[in-house]
Structure formats: C-alpha cells, structure tokens
Design brief:
Largest sheet: none
Number of strands: 0
Order of helices and strands: HHH
Number of domains: 1
Strand content: under 5%
Structural class: mainly alpha
C-alpha cells in the first residue's frame, strides 16, 4: 500500500459519501412505509449514523468550508 494521489482519495470519498446519502434516503423511505416494530425502533439510530458519516465525509472532502 503506497501513497495515493489526492484526486483519487477525493474520488473515493465522494463515492463513499454518495453511498451514505443513498443509505440515509433508503432508511427514511423505509420509515415512511410503517416498518415492523422490531425494526422501527432502530431506524432513528441508523439514520443518525448515516447522517453522521455523511457529515464526516463531507468535512474530509471540503475541510475549509
């Protein structure tokens, strides 16, 4: 494993951010569909995790904003 070009790292982080956003969107849609009780209680925590990861990735991609 060596040093990667900054543009390659940013491209990878962008891909990860896109995946996290898709996960958050899917969880919100699933929540609107009245999920089974056994799952419904975990959805807010799971959505919070997705949102936190999105925020962290965004800060890594654009740290000065």
């Amino acid at each position: 494993m060596g040093f990667e070009k900054t543009s390659d790292v940013i491209a990878f982080l962008d891909l990860m951010l896109e995946c996290e956003r898709a996960g958050a969107k899917a969880l919100r849609q699933f929540e609107r569909m009245t999920p089974p009780e056994i799952v419904a209680g975990a959805l807010p925590r799971l959505f919070g995790d997705e949102a936190r990861y999105c925020a962290g990735l965004s800060r890594q991609i654009t740290p000065d904003i």
